[in-house]
């Protein structure tokens, strides 16, 4: 993965985005001769950087990318928000660099839902991924407090009428079912508040555990544990961009 500058900007601005300090602090770092650009000491904090430039701090090459895409295994009990005065948020699970770069959650997962959460600095890609007209499927694994049957599968496929909106048709695949409990996979195109839970509630079932497994072609990395993250590989970013390219579907 490239480590060089990926967008034109001033040197002090880049160092701030990389969470190396306040504007005055990073300007002092530059003035002290600790920064090299393309192998040459640079003492001008106002220097305009170009894509492809290499930046080093005290001899150590910096990962100077400001465009970031992160896969997080969101654990239960954590808010999908940029900040909250009382509760831990998903950005609290990441190093300060990501917040400084403007990396934000793409959509949300409820506090009591775990699984795949994408964070990105690309607002346009995020908007496209969230648009129901793009028909980007999200897959969830749900456990409910009673049996499921083919009638539930048919109801999900038809679309369920809830109190304030009608959920679009969704796929329901029953993995196991008995009198006390059922496990199923659900694919939806929307992401409204508590939608999957409310859809099951409309069928008389309470969701006891919910985990998001995928967003379009992007699946949760099985090697990640709750609270862990990794940056997307270039091929994964390309898959997401391909999934939302072209015109919106009606």
Structure description:
There is one protein chain. With 250 residues, the chain is α+β, with helices and mostly antiparallel strands. The chain has three domains: 9-61, RNA-binding S4 domain (Structural Genomics Hypothetical 15.5 Kd Protein In mrcA-pckA Intergenic Region, Chain A); 69-131 and 224-243, Pseudouridine synthase I, catalytic domain, N-terminal subdomain (Alpha-Beta Plaits); 137-215, Alpha-L RNA-binding motif (Alpha-Beta Plaits, 2-Layer Sandwich). It is 22% helix and 26% strand. The chain is built from seven helices and 15 strands. It has helices at residues 11-17, 23-31, 96-100, 123-130, 150-158, 195-202, 234-243, and strands spanning 9-10, 35-37, 40-41, 48-49, 55-57, 60-61, 69-74, 104-105, 114-120, 138-144, 171-177, 182-188, 207-215, 218-219, 229-231. Strands 7, 8, 9, 10, 11, 12, 13, 14 and 15 form a nine-stranded mixed beta sheet that branches. A hairpin with a 2-residue loop joins strand 2 (35-37) and strand 3. Helix 1 (11-17) packs across helix 2 (23-31). The protein starts with 8 loop residues before the first strand and ends in a 7-residue tail after the last helix. The model has no long low-confidence stretch (mean pLDDT 93).
Briefly characterize the structure.
This protein has 250 residues and is of the alpha+beta class.
Strand-helix topology:
Blueprint (H helix, E strand, L loop, with lengths): L8 E2 H7 L5 H9 L3 E3 L2 E2 L6 E2 L5 E3 L2 E2 L7 E6 L21 H5 L3 E2 L8 E7 L2 H8 L7 E7 L5 H9 L12 E7 L4 E7 L6 H8 L4 E9 L2 E2 L9 E3 L2 H10 L7
Parallel strand pairs: 9-13
Antiparallel strand pairs: 1-4, 2-3, 2-5, 5-6, 7-9, 7-15, 8-9, 10-12, 10-13, 11-12, 13-14
Helix pairs in contact: 1-2
